Amino acid sequence: MIVAMSGILSNRLRKTRQARGLTQQELASRVGISRQSLNALESGRSVPGTDVALELASALGERVDVLFSLAGVKRVSATFPGRRLRNGDRVALADVDGRWIAHAVEHTDGLAADGVVVSGQVRPFDRLDRARRRLVVMGCAPALSVLASRLGDDHGLPLTWVRGSSGASLSALARGEVHVAGIHLEENVIEVMRRFPRQSMRVVNLVTWEQGLLVGEGNPLRIRRLGDALTPKVRWVRREPDSGAERLLRSLARDKMPLGGALATGHLEVAQRIALGAADAGIGIRAAAIAFGLPFIPLTEERFDLVFHDRLAQDDRMERLVDTVAGSPFKRELAALGGYQTAASGHEVGVP
User: Fold this and answer.
1) What pLDDT score was predicted for residue 351?
2) pLDDT tens across 124-171, in order?
3) Predicted local distance difference test score (pLDDT) of residue 82
4) Which terminus of the chain is more exposed, N or C, with fewer CB under 10 A?
C-alpha cells in the first residue's frame, strides 16, 4: 500500500532503478504496484508501506534505508482510531498493513511520542525510522507494560500498549488498527476462529492468571464468595460489556447481575477504584489485587493470549516479541510482581 504524505520525500529509488537498467513498468510489475504508484514514489509525492518498501528493496537488491529517507517529511496522513484527537495531541505512529495508524499518547503515560496532530494530520518530531519499527498491541493485561519495557531496553524495539477489552482488541485487529490483540475469553481459540473465519491466525500465550473478586481493604463487608457481593448494598465497579471480566461475571451471576456500577478500562483501574473507596467490589486479576493490597477471592483460571495474523509471524519484530515473552528475564519479573503463571508463556496455541 502507498501512503500519502505532505512534504518532500528524499529517496534514491529512481537512481537505483536506472542503475539496474529497469524501466518504471518493469519494476512496478515485479513489485505488484501500478506504474503511476511507482512514479509517485520516485517523485517523492508518496511513501510506501512496509510491504511495498520491502518488495522494492528485494527487487533492486538494496536496503530499505538506502532507498528511502524520511528526514524531509513535514506531515503524515494517518488513521486515528479511538477517541477524537485535537490539534496539539501527541501520538505514536505505526505502520499497520501499509497504513499509518496514530494512537494517542497520554500525558500521564510519560512516554515519548512520534509527532503531534495538526489539522487532521501528524507533524513528526523527527525521522520516522522508529515509528516504522513500532509494534502496537491492544489488551487489558498490565504485563503488556513490562513487555513493552523489555522490548525497548533489550532490542530497541518500540511497542505501544493500547488499553482495551478483549472484544475491543479483536475488533481493532480486524480493522487493521493494531498488530496484536490481547485476549482472555472463555475459549480464546474458538473466539479467534469465529472472528477470523477465513484467515490464518497465530495465538501465543502471554501469561496465565487467576481472575476473581476484588474487595475493599480489610474486607469490611465480609464478602467470602461472589453471591455475597450480588446484593444492592454492594457498590460495584464494572468492565466493558465485551471484556473477559464482564463475560465471566455474566456467566457466574446469571440473573443476579449487580445493578449499575462505574465502568473501568482495565484490571488496575478496577483495583484502584476499590482501593480509593469509590467501589466495594469488582472482577479483576490477582496481580491487580496484589498491586493495591486488596483481598482477592478467586473464581477461575484463564489464559491471556496474543493474537496476530500469520503473515506477521515471520517479521523479525514479532520473533523478538515472542522470544522475549518466552525468555527467563520476562518470566522472572512477572513472578516478582505476583499473580502470574508463566509456564506456557511464549508457547503457541493451536488454531485449526
Assistant:
1) 61
2) 988 788 888 999 999 999 999 999 999 998 888 999 999 999 999 999
3) 80
4) C
Q: What pLDDT does residue 71 have?
A: 53
Helices within the chain (DSSP H only):
13-19, 24-31, 35-42, 50-60, 64-67, 129-133, 143-155, 166-174, 188-195, 226-229, 244-253, 267-275, 286-292, 316-326, 328-337
Question: pTM here?
Answer: 0.77
- 8 A C-beta contact, residue 87 and residue 118: yes
Closest CA relative to residue 311, chosen from 61, 54, 58: 54
Separation CA 316–CA 323 (nearest Å): 10
Backbone angles phi, psi at 320, to 5 degrees: -65, -40
Q: Grid coordinates standing for 108?
A: 500521564
Q: Domain spanning 2-69: which superfamily? A: lambda repressor-like DNA-binding domains (1.10.260.40)
Quick one: 257 exposed, middle or buried, by C-beta within 10 A (0-12, 13-18, 19+)?
middle
Classify domain 208-302 by CATH architecture.
3-Layer(aba) Sandwich (3.40)
Q: Extract the residue ranges of the chain whose pLDDT is less than 50.
A: 1-9
Strand 236-238 with 281-285, pairing: parallel
User: Cell for 76?
Assistant: 503524515
